[in-house]
Design brief:
The chain contains three helices and no strands. It is mostly helical and 90 residues long. α1 packs antiparallel against α2. The longest helix has 34 residues, at 25-58.
Length: 90
């Protein structure tokens, strides 16, 4: 069974309150989906803002993060380093 979230319950209550004015089933569905999309948009905007705040507070810019990823990729690709063999007789 699917669990209802607090936002789903709030959306349902808003739709029920608005449908008291004689809305058709289609209009209620459109209102419900529009409210869900607004919630999704708000969540994504919040995530973008949080990531921006974290990067600003930690001093990591997007450019330095790209450079760090590129450097890590170069290190991983250079796994074929020369191996020195010790304890062998010449």
């Amino acid at each position: 069974m699917k669990r209802k979230h607090a936002t789903d319950l709030a959306i349902q209550q808003l739709v029920e309150a608005a449908s008291g004015r004689g809305m058709s089933l289609r209009e209620r569905h459109l209102l419900k989906e529009s409210l869900r999309n607004l919630v999704r948009l708000a969540k994504s905007e919040l995530m973008v803002e949080m990531k921006s705040n974290v990067s600003r507070l930690t001093g990591i810019t997007a450019q330095s993060a790209r450079r760090a990823r590129a450097a890590a990729a170069r290190c991983n690709s250079s796994a074929h380093q020369q191996r020195f063999e010790f304890n062998q007789m010449d």
